[in-house]
Amino acid sequence: MPGDPGASHADAWHALADYLAQAGPPVLFGLPGDDLAALAAVDSRGLRLVLCRDQRNAVFMATGYALGSGGPGVCVIGKGPAVANAVTGLVEARASGAPVVLVAGGTAVDRRGSGAFQELDQLALVSPAVKWAHRVDHPDRVAPALERAFLVAASDPRGPVYLELPDHLIGAPVPRARPWLPATAVARARATSPVRGAALTALRSSRRPVVLVGGGMRHRNPDGVVERFAERIGAAVFTTASGRGAVAEDHPLFCGLSGLYTPPGTEELWREADLVVAVGSRLEETATTGWDRPDRPVLQVDVDPASLSTDHPGPRVVGDGADVLAAWVAEVDRPPDRSWRTAVERCRAAARGHAEQVRGAPPEGDRPRVVDVLAAIDEVLPPDRVLVQENGLQDMWSYFYPHYTCRSAGGCIAPSEQTTLGFGAAAAAGARLAAPDRPVVAFVGDGAFNLFRSDLATLDREGIGVLYVVLRNGGYGWLHAQLDRHRLDPARHGFASDAPDAGGAGSHFPVTDRTGLVDAVRRGYRVTARGGVAVVHVDVRLADRHPALDNLIGDFPAHVAQC
Predict the structure, then answer these.
(1) E strand or H helix at 49, and its extent?
(2) DSSP letter, residue 241
(3) Domain Thiamine pyrophosphate enzyme TPP-binding spans what residues (predicted)?
């Protein structure tokens, strides 16, 4: 810009810190490389870096932050095995459409091919899991690469990017000829005219429509355009697992999740629907399990043509879901079919009746049932809570409406179709930092929790108040020793402590019978309200799973007998 002389930064990591201080999120996650150059740069600008014990958890946290805030999640790590360990997180972020920026170290250009310490072809490793992967080899290219990384991550279709800053950029001055241009400054063109043709014809002729909302509509329904569209055409509303939280589940047209998680009592809607309007969904296998009408048209709307499924008949529209639905609200000029609205109301009542029947069944023994645990969460935590889900056998009860309802004031973060074990447990930390004024509860199994548990002390140290409801069937000395050399504060950066962590950080509340359940959840919630981390361990029976999953064979959802 005219009048701005630009700037020079001490090195690439200081350039990144300056960009984040002016245009990025207020918090980032990671485990920096042994040289601690990234940590020193972050400290120089007063940024908050949540130091994690595991790079995998760090990327999960950044993903949770991105999904919760709608903005970028940033993760900073070292090189070699650090990057390899982060790939699992990138796979989950890519499938979730999360705008995560992973910045890693790398082997210096003059050492490549020499057997250098932790040398690895990192670009080849991460490229299949990200939208864009790039290595910066010259200081002059650092500033443009930073801007591009955040722009690509935040642009539709959103997803993770990888940026490598090799070792030879440490200590090399980085010039910048103009002010930073953040990704938020890039204007997005909106639809100026409605989509007509076959899509509008299908809408006008449908009498029994279903609207299916996918994860692509997250943060794209702030004014309730999905609900207004459903009311205009008289459609039943379902979401995919990753689309949960995009619509209000206490809306009178909402009927639950689709496919594998179809609530008992609502199958009639899928059998009788004459049109499915899928918005922001890739129509993944779990979302379409049980669809026994291969001839039924599916009207797909997605901003990314590569996300449109070609396995279903029906019109396909490339465009922003919110814009397209808003235009169609004014274009559909027929009244909704009253008999179909009656069917929707009847099926919703049947789903509620089935849930009440399950809740009212005599328990076996004194152990809490999973439905009791969900009821306790609903009783204790306020309606604006954010539920972060895993995808284990028993915590999947939370996917079946109305055993759990994500209310209009609340939110939800679920794993993608990859269902990476431990994602939800770690992502809950990012979700809480994205919404610091709202309670966050992670509903997880003990297997997922144990994968994450090394970073429980991280949340405790950082004051990230997450409530973990777990269905139950130490430190880094080398990095800590480098702090003095870099004149960094060991009290702020807790790589190690005098009391080695044994996975017992936080406040723990064991529950072995139903009588203590609500009190334990209430006590845990009070801890998190003060910024502490609380874990409610609930002993449950291994056989306590949703009946819809009884016929699950192996790990292939298509084998579930349903509908």
Answers:
(1) strand 48-51
(2) S
(3) 400-487
